[in-house]
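Design request, tokens follow.
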């Protein structure tokens, strides 16, 4: 299914996947009282940065 999408759509979905993963990690940290509400935002931003680095290193190849 992922191969049938255009390159811009695959890129968008990859970035969205990293954002969702970061939000989930941040929510888990918040639920475990490891960080405050700021943990959700920081984890989401951190995962987006890691995702951008991943896409840069792999030459823009999607997940």
């Amino acid at each position: 299914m992922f191969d049938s999408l255009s390159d811009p759509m695959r890129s968008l979905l990859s970035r969205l996947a990293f954002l969702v993963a970061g939000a989930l990690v941040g929510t888990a940290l918040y639920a475990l009282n490891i960080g405050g509400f700021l943990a959700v935002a920081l984890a989401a931003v951190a995962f987006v940065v890691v995702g951008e680095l991943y896409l840069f290193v792999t030459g823009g190849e999607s997940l």
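Comment from the thread starter after seeing the answer: thanks! Helices lie at 7-31, 38-57.
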